[in-house]
Amino acid sequence: MTDAPMTDLSVIASEEGRIGRLLLNRPKALNALDHAMILALRAALAAWQEAPGVHAVVIDSASDRAFCAGGDIRAIRSHALAGEADDVERFFAEEYALNAEIARFPKPYVALIDGICMGGGIGVSVHGQVRVATEHAVFAMPETAIGMFPDIGATFFLPRLPGALGLYLGLTGQRMTGADAVHAGLATHFVPRAKLPALRAAMIADGAAAVAPLAETLPPFSLAPHRAAIDRCFSAASVPEIVSRLEAEDSAWARETLATLGTMSPSALCWSFAAVTRGATLELPAALAAELRLTRHVTRHADFAEGVRAMVVDKDRKPRWTPPTLDQVDPATIAAMLD
Ligand code: QUE
Fold first, then answer.
1. 106 C-alpha vs ligand 1 centroid, how far in Å?
2. What would the pLDDT profile of 202-229 be if each residue is shown by its tens digit?
3. What's the total number of domains in the chain?
4. Nearest-angstrom CA–CA distance, 338 and 326
């Protein structure tokens, strides 16, 4: 968190001491990444990759509510409904190119995650070398709620989390605290919000080496009591089998998880399961390329426009999915989308 900068720019790139600083500054949209922001981030990284005075890049937010709530899916929905497939394609291609550039950036890339960090926000943080989360961080991959799928490289990193945690997070959209994100492997350091000003100052002087000394002991993993059940249920070979295993658990956690899955797009659960499972065998560039191909099908499916309408545009949180139940989802239709 910083004072509101005196500028309309949605990404403020500046050089401060040894660091290149990227400040996400679109607070009214919870820093949801629009096309211009993605281009600005890519341009700054390209410039700093070669700049000898820049020893590390730090990305953080001008809002204390959100690091970044995701991609600008409201705009993507408008393009999709207008049949502007080229605009949809350009957005995802640029976003995934940025994710790949962060992953291969040759200097430390440090994300300071304080507030909401979902979807595209995870994409501009988790691929970096250092991910600092505060006690106000909220991590989630909630795309099945909007008829999408965990993208931004999530089909690469989710299947690499411990046990079946990645599939659990990617299908349920379960929120995690900053400490949880470190336990899960999405974040690397836990630093309280109150220490962020000192951390920024120390990085301006010393670069990324300043992070570790300010990290604090982790509170326990809130998902620890459910880790065994998560692995039992989410290691199943299909979404219907995950549901059967949850029904067999007969626990409060399993009933809550079933209720959550019951609100998600049944089709999105199935294509997300397939995409995350396949991602276990792909390196990041191939996973991102497969994600881009899948967006072409998903953004044409009725559940995408309906999910974004219900959760982001109208906010009635009452999507009407097509088909409405899991048993009506045709496995052959899903398989064809992942070709
Ligand atoms: C699931 C999601 C997203 C979401 C809500 C969900 C998502 C996303 C946004 C979002 C939030 C604020 C904005 C905006 C988009 O909300 O990915 O444009 O101003 O980006 O339930 O996956």
1. 30
2. 999 999 999 999 999 999 999 999 999 9
3. 1
4. 18
